[in-house]
């Protein structure tokens, strides 16, 4: 999928995390305090090692060249110092063990706090992503495949979490260690410290160059992974179709191309990473050789003690991890920046169907169910359309109107039936009533008010919608029927199942209403899924009930039984029946026939039969089919 979003830098993308970090200010501060404690105790270790070496060497005073610094850092141990004294050696080594334990304590809490913080923010981010996704209209899901969105919410979110946990922790550790070590190294020997800092400009340039490459590559890698996830998700969801059409080999070949592209991009990233880390290690190794050479000369010339050289060398050893971590952190932040940009695509998406036009003080408390279409022409917004019939922007095909000049009034409490050939716009008309798609301004009214002036929650709670494509969740039948109703009683669930004529079949299941239906209701037949969806709509007691060809998978006998049980319920609310069967719609108060998005016939069952048009032909054909079936 190609995004029209302007590419921003990784840092600019990561700035979107600031509000999440600000919610946990206390944890961040505490984590930085423990990080500082770990840095300070870690700084004492090289000095103590240097003092131990001077004790073994027989120096009259430990780290004599450091003067004031020795008094500040090791003052609590100096009274016990004696050259070549076993007692001094034991005391200093014991102190070294205690300082290591204290550093371990700070290290534990640093990880516990900062890694825990990253998990807390991951939790907040995941909730915000889902909250955003459930508010977006169907158009968004037409433009974005499910597998790609899942990849963003899992793989990309994990990369962002790495920034917030290990990224921040290692960054703080690297900064604190480098600052303290460099200051103390300059105190020991400014000349040697300059040798150590010689590679810094080269390291900075290396990090900048490789960081840009890693950021760009990782964005492409995540995009490839999203395509791969979408392909796998589609194959798993459609596995029965793949096997039925013996397309296993074809799908495997189709999966191979995005899989190879994903691997190739990862190999390209590994190539840069393989150059980056050895280059840093080479610079570190050259620095160590230079320090040993020049530091050894200074010890020979008595400008520093052996203990001070060992302390300096230990500080350098402590700088190895920050320098290596610098590359690791660069990788984490560049990956996180690319992934955060992909998450921002979701977080920045604004629902085009919202409550912007709602005026709360003018909104009635209840919806009665009157529906009116006024000269409505509707075109799906997924592709831009031009009135002159030319392509939009030179590359988008013109989208033909799905519904044209629809004028229709449905009184509250009446039954409207819609029939017509496939592709005539029946389901679109139903979806507009539930405001799943946005009708043009002023063309659709509920209870005499434009539909956009009704709060979405109030409108949709007043609508019971059974779509043509029945969807059941991977839960129990009880939970599927009670979906959308808080604390539904068993009696309500049983009554709704009775109305939908599925209660008897459920009672025959070993687990009855606690039967798991499997993914998308795979363990149920098509008719059972449709009737479960009808029960789910009925239990809501909606003011407007929409049944979009929801009896197509049941036989005519079951259909008649369901309609008889539904009759009382249908008369208590506004009902929209969409069907290909005349037997389903013949008792409606008004019937409209749609063809090519236009209303070509309207009237009652008897009126349409007398007219001898499409409806009458459909009725005669279905009568003939029933007679042939009986024979």
Describe the structure.
With 631 residues, this protein is of the alpha/beta class. The chain folds into two domains: 20-347, ABC transporter type 1, transmembrane domain (ABC transporter transmembrane region fold), CATH 1.20.1560.10; 362-462 and 542-630, P-loop containing nucleotide triphosphate hydrolases (Rossmann fold), CATH 3.40.50. It is 61% helix and 8% strand. The chain has 22 helices and ten strands. It has helices at residues 10-14, 18-22, 25-57, 68-74, 86-133, 138-143, 146-188, 190-197, 200-237, 239-244, 248-300, 306-347, 426-433, 456-461, 477-481, 490-499, 503-508, 526-538, 556-570, 582-585, 605-611, 614-630, and strands at 371-378, 403-410, 415-419, 444-446, 449-450, 463-466, 544-548, 574-578, 590-595, 598-603. The strands form two sheets. It has a six-stranded mixed β-sheet with strand order 6-7-8-3-9-10, with helices on both faces. A four-stranded antiparallel β-sheet has the order 2-1-4-5, with helices on one face. Strand 9 (590-595) and strand 10 form a beta hairpin. Helix 3 packs antiparallel against helix 12, helix 5 runs antiparallel to helix 7 and helix 21 crosses helix 22 (614-630). The longest helix is centred in the middle third of the chain and has 53 residues, at 248-300. The two termini are 54 Å apart. Mean pLDDT is 81; it is low at 1-6 and 383-397.
Salient structural properties:
2 domains, ABC transporter transmembrane region fold, four-stranded antiparallel beta sheet, 631 residues, disordered N terminus, Rossmann fold, alpha/beta
Number of domains: 2
Oligomeric state of the chains? single chain
- Report the CATH topology name of the largest domain: ABC transporter transmembrane region fold
Provide the gyration radius in Å. 36 Å
CATH architecture of the largest domain: Up-down Bundle
Low-confidence stretches: 1-6, 383-397
CATH C-level of the largest domain: Mainly Alpha
Cα separation of the termini: 54 Å
The fourth-level CATH homologous superfamily of the largest domain is ABC transporter type 1, transmembrane domain
Number of helices: 22
With strands numbered from the N-terminus, the spatial order across the biggest sheet is 6-7-8-3-9-10
Shape: elongated
Work out the strand percent. 5-15%
User: Helix fraction?
Assistant: 55-70%
Major pleated sheet: 6 strands, mixed
Structural class: alpha/beta
Number of strands: 10
Mean pLDDT across all amino acids: 81
């Amino acid at each position: 999928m190609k995004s029209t979003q302007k590419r921003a830098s990784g840092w600019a993308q990561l700035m979107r995390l600031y509000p999440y970090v600000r919610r946990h200010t206390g944890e961040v501060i505490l984590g930085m305090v423990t990080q500082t404690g770990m840095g300070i105790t870690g700084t004492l270790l090289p000095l103590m090692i240097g003092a131990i070496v001077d004790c073994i060497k027989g120096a009259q005073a430990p780290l004599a060249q450091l003067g004031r610094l020795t008094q500040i850092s090791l003052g609590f141990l100096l009274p016990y110092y004696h050259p070549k004294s076993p007692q001094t050696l034991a005391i200093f080594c014991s102190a070294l063990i205690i300082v290591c334990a204290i550093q371990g304590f700070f290290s534990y809490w640093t990880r516990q706090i900062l890694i825990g913080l990253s998990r807390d923010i991951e939790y907040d981010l995941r909730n915000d992503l889902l909250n955003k996704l459930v508010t977006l209209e169907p158009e968004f899901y037409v433009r974005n495949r499910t597998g790609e969105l899942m990849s963003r919410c899992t793989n990309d979110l994990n990369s962002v979490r790495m920034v917030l946990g290990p990224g921040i922790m290692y960054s703080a550790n690297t900064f604190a260690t480098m600052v303290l070590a460099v200051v103390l190294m300059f105190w020991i020997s400014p000349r040697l410290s300059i040798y150590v800092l010689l590679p810094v400009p080269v390291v900075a340039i290396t990090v900048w160059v490789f960081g840009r490459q890693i950021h760009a590559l990782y964005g492409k890698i995540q995009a490839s992974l999203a395509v791969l996830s979408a392909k796998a998700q589609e194959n798993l969801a459609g596995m029965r179709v793949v096997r039925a059409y013996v397309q296993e080999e074809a799908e495997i070949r189709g999966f191979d191309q995005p899989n190879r592209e994903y691997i190739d991009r990862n190999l390209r990233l590994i190539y840069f990473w393989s150059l980056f880390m050895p280059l840093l290690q080479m610079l570190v190794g050259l620095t160590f050789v230079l320090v040993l050479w020049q530091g050894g000369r200074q010890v020979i010339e008595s400008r520093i003690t052996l203990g001070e050289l060992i302390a300096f060398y230990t500080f350098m050893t402590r700088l190895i991890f920050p320098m290596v971590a610098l590359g690791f952190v660069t990788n984490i932040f560049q990956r996180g920046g690319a992934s955060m940009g992909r998450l921002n695509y979701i977080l920045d998406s604004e629902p085009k169907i919202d409550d912007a036009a709602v005026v709360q003080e003018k909104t009635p408390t209840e919806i009665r169910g009157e529906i009116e279409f006024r000269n409505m022409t509707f075109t799906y917004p997924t592709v831009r359309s031009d009135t002159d019939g030319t392509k939009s922007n030179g590359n988008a095909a013109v989208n033909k109107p799905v519904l044209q000049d629809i004028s229709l009034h449905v009184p509250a409490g009446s039954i409207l039936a819609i029939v017509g050939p496939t592709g005539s716009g029946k389901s679109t008309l139903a979806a507009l009533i539930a405001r799943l798609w946005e009708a043009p301004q002023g063309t659709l009214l509920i209870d005499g008010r434009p539909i956009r002036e009704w709060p979405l929650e109030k409108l949709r709670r007043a609508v019971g919608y059974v779509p043509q494509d029945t969807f059941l969740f991977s839960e129990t039948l009880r939970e599927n029927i009670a979906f959308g109703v808080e604390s539904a009683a068993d009696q309500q669930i049983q009554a709704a199942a009775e109305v939908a004529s599925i209660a008897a079949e459920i009672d025959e299941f070993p687990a009855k209403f606690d039967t798991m239906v499997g993914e998308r209701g795979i363990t149920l037949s098509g008719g059972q899924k449709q009737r479960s969806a009808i029960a789910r709509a009925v239990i809501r007691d909606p003011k407007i009930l929409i049944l979009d060809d929801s009896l197509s998978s049941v036989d005519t006998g079951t259909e008649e039984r369901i309609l008889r049980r539904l009759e009382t319920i249908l008369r208590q609310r506004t009902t929209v029946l969409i069907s290909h069967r005349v037997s389903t719609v013949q008792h409606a108060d008004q019937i409209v026939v749609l063809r090519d998005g236009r209303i070509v016939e309207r009237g009652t069952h008897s009126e349409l039969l007398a007219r001898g048009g499409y409806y009458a032909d459909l009725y005669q054909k279905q009568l003939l089919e029933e007679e042939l079936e009986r024979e």
